[in-house]
Design goal:
The chain has three helices and five strands; from the N terminus they run H-E-E-E-H-H-E-E. By secondary structure, the protein is of the alpha+beta class. Strand 4 and strand 5 form a beta hairpin.
Length: 128
């Protein structure tokens, strides 16, 4: 049961992050890409970059929530996200995806109130 609640919280955070990116002018290319290394939360594109986004969601008071969420993206997770991005690129030839000059890895920290309301969102471009 706890796993289902955590999964639902994570999915809500990813939807909030996706809406944030769309409002900021990004095109969402893919959601929840699964690979042998794990799951890429969001792949997006802006005018210059193809962006691989790791979203971390926490339920809290909003005081230090996003920092705590972003602290969860340690060196091991960063390596896995890079490996997933490489696999994603290999599986999608340039003619089947947006081609951009640069690749970037962003982190988005979402803090929710216990009732699911958004307390805080922090988007860190080029986080790793």
């Amino acid at each position: 049961m706890q796993t289902d609640a955590r999964r639902a919280t994570g999915a809500l955070g990813e939807r909030i992050a996706e809406r944030h990116l769309e409002r900021a002018g990004y095109e969402i290319v893919e959601r929840n890409y699964r690979s042998r290394y794990g799951e890429l939360d969001l792949v997006a594109a802006d005018a210059r970059c193809l962006v691989f986004c790791e979203v971390k969601t926490r339920v809290g008071t909003g005081r230090s929530g996003p920092a705590q969420a972003l602290d969860a993206i340690g060196p091991r997770k960063r390596r896995r996200v890079r490996a997933m991005a490489m696999q994603w690129l290999r599986e999608r030839p340039p003619e089947g995806r947006p081609v951009r000059r640069d690749l970037r890895f962003d982190a988005i920290g979402v803090t929710l109130a216990p009732n699911g309301a958004l307390l805080r969102l922090e988007h860190v471009p080029d986080a790793f």
